[in-house]
Write the structure tokens for this entry.
Amino acid sequence: MFHTKPPKPKRILKTVEELKATNAARQARYRAKKLRQLHPNANAKIVREFYKNRPEGYEVDHIRPLAKGGLHHENNLQYLTISENRTKGSIWLVETEGFEPIS
């Protein structure tokens, strides 16, 4: 007697929209990973402590958003309430007090 293998299930092709969404998600993950990298002059210990010491009800915010060329550096971090952070979005106020450019 011959035993035949069951037929392989047909591969379901994704629609163009699904492929675009998958590709966009992949690109977003790559950009996020790249943006989260510390600036070479940043003090990793200070950055970690800043996140660790975040007050309850607050989020760590980048003063100059990463999407606008800001750096993941201790001089570019601040605490904002969740609602303040959502309102701010990726806006950068150049005249922000206490902001020191990083060289």
The chain has a mean pLDDT of 80. The longest strand covers residues 58-62.
